[in-house]
Write the structure tokens for this entry.
Amino acid sequence: MGVCLVLFVLAWSVVRLWSVPAAVAMCVVAMVIPPVAAIIGNRREPGERWWDECGDPESDRWWRELDDRDDEQHPR
């Protein structure tokens, strides 16, 4: 977040004196950084199943059974 703020401040206090398109480009980069960081930060790993647990015993048993099969096929 600090990088985004620095980009905005530098773009409109310093860079705009030499090049307005460069300042706009810096602001666009600063605008894109937070959503990209959120997407990367919220990725899940292939082995994570916590979001699949819904409280339904049948469904949870089925997922545990699939996880056990994965462990047998791909030993760690």
